Amino acid sequence: MFWNAVAPLPPLCSHQLLHFRAITKVRLKWVKNRSLDHIIDVQTDVKAVSLIKDAIVRCPGSYLTSKSLMDSQKLLGLTIPTLRFIRRYPSLFEEYPHPKYASLACFKLTQLGKTMQELEMEVYKKCEDLIVEKLCRVLMMTTNKMLPLQSLHQLKWDLGLPDDYATGLIRKYPDLFQVVKGTTGGLNCLKLLRSPQEFAVSMLQKMNDGNMDDCSSGCFSGYRDFKRRKTSLEFSMSFPRGYGVQKKVKAWMEDFHKLPYISPYEDSRGIDPNSELMEKRVVGVLHEFLHLTVQKKTKRNYLRSLREELNLPHKFTRIFTRYPGIFYLSLKCKTTTVALRECYQRGKLVDPDPIARYRSKLLWVMRNGLIYRDKAAEMLLPQKLEDLPVNEGGISSGEEDEEEEEVEGFYDSESDQ
Questions:
Q1: What's the CA gap between 417 and 405, in Å, rounded?
Q2: How far apart are CA 343 and CA 337, in angstroms?
Q3: What band does 328 get if pLDDT is binned at 50, 70 and 90?
Q4: How many CB atoms lie within 10 A of CB 82?
Q5: Residue 172 CB neighbour total at 10 angstroms
Q6: What is the C-alpha separation between 282 and 268, in angstroms, rounded?
């Protein structure tokens, strides 16, 4: 349910325009986290399987040819050829010769693949309110309350949007969303027509509030104190082993936490882009955005494409390496991925939503399909899909949560890695 009344965000306080003293400069070695790297590697395969499945469903004949898949390796984020990848999962994709050209291989969904597709549609239907809320929150963080559809399209998987969100979901809510022409470039943009008041509270504010049960009243005690500047909100920190006890790091974090917290839903255009206050505001925006994603991670380049809309300074991505206690920067799968450390424990998501749990079931089917190969569909279909095990793709429970390895390189606040 959505409120018709829109409460204006509080104006910028006078202290937001002040320039604070410089925060302690710290230079840290880059530490590789094998657990998070493994999750990112596994989820890349899950994403590729889902994108191929969606492409097959969209096609008029419900199949894809090997020729159409030849140049999709980079688009899917794979490190191996797409045909080699799709042939790993005969339990989900059936290969057969083209009816007219026998030498041309075609791929369609198996019965198990169709069943997983039906389950996915059911999950999206049940999570529609959650998806609409996420979409509203993302648009509320932008300066003009709108984003180009092409920017949203590349974030579709990370935000958990259904494949047809642009033609189906947003049309169901004409009081919230509208497709308009952008002011620059003439691109089609999704515009938020009104900002539901109950969504203007960030995850950090919720985490620091002791009573968030009654959201309908709009009266959050912790949030009221935050608005009156009577309390400071601290980010959860989980530094690589050994860094958290260093004196310089402690002094750095003390200085950082003393700065006022700027909600990502507040107007930030009056803040000095070169100030430490803007730096903390950027940390808050990235922290909130990553919390809105399904797996609490996304590609760094996707965030770069939102720089102007989110009012982020140039070279803002240095924040990821400057605050390794909040963010983890992974170089797996020939790309750079940013993840929230606080959202993972022992190689698994702390609080997965229904979409994340469905993807874990899909991962379980993929792994068992690799084991049973052609017999996988016969062995897995009789089971109730609701009872499938949830596998987050993390390390086994017997291994350490933080398997870290120091490598050459530094967390340097002065360079954009």
A1: 19
A2: 15
A3: very high
A4: 21
A5: 10
A6: 10
316 in Cβ contact with 351 (< 8 Å): no
Task: Work out the pLDDT band at 182, boundaries 50, 70, 90.
Answer: confident
- Residue pair 283/237 in contact (Cβ under 8 Å)? The answer is no
Residue count of the chain: 417
The helix/strand/coil state of 114 is helix
**Mean pLDDT computed over every residue of the chain:** 80
At 25 the pLDDT is: 57
Select from 225, 317, 241 the least CA-distant residue to 279: 317
Residues 6+ apart with CB under 8 A from 34: 395, 403, 404, 405
Are 221 and 211 in contact by the 8 Å Cβ rule? The answer is yes
pLDDT reading at 30 higher than 80? no
Please tell me the chain's helix, strand, coil percentages from 3-state DSSP, rounded to the nearest 5.
Answer: 45, 15, 45
Q: Which helix (H) or strand (E) holds 226?
A: helix 221-227
H/E segment holding residue 139: helix 128-140
- Helices 34-58 and 354-372: angle between axes, nearest 10 degrees: 90
